[in-house]
Amino acid sequence: MATRVMVIDDHPLLRDAVRSRVLQVAPDAEFAYVGASIAEAVTEHEHQPVDCAILDLDLGDGKSPIVNTSQLVNVGCRVLIVSALADAATVRGALRAGALGYISKQADIDEFEDSFKLTVEGTPSTSRDVAAILSSDEQSSVQLSERERTALVLYASGLKMDAVARRMDVKPATAQEYIRRVRAKYARVGADVSTKTDLYRRARDEGLVP
């Protein structure tokens, strides 16, 4: 049975390049969808499931890369990201959102073949350069300013917003703004910290609070 593949990229030339790579490693591949619409890709998968969705994170659609990844994962797609976007926060966010593989567009054909086959099998993978980015990034968190980190630690430790403000010698509205920024930064990398409990767990996991 042919391997059903989707290629989701907003650049026609890059879509053709990915198609060529797929055919090099899976000559019998059937391209169920090739285009730049997440909605159309989701519809195709729901109509007849595909074995692998190859996704570029920068689709030029104004949506967060994490949202696009999540939409595919949520309908059961096995997602392999092939993208020039390879900063640690983006990689971690995409993997947290459920992508099985993440390789850069500079990866050689052998790495592409390995990641493609592993994704079809449902096994996680990354290319060497992406793995190096992850290993060199000591923190899995986003980059917070000193004031944002202080507000996070105080708030996550159990203090109410007024108490956080007093400790920081700022107005409550300012303390609330720091926490809003913290939530926004985590949201950009796919981390849900919408509740105070979520913030505490995140801070605990990153060693900021006991």
Can you walk through the features of this model?
With 210 residues, the chain is α/β, with parallel strands linked by helices. It has 2 domains: 133 residues, Rossmann fold (3-Layer(aba) Sandwich); 60 residues, Arc Repressor Mutant, subunit A, CATH 1.10.10.10. It is 53% helix and 12% strand. It is built from 10 helices and 6 strands, in the order E-H-E-H-E-H-E-H-E-H-E-H-H-H-H-H. A 6-stranded parallel beta sheet has the order 2-1-3-4-5-6, with helices on both faces. Strand 3, helix 3 and strand 4 form a beta-alpha-beta unit. The longest helix is centred in the last third of the chain and has 17 residues. It starts with a strand and ends in a 5-residue tail after the last helix. The mean pLDDT is 86.
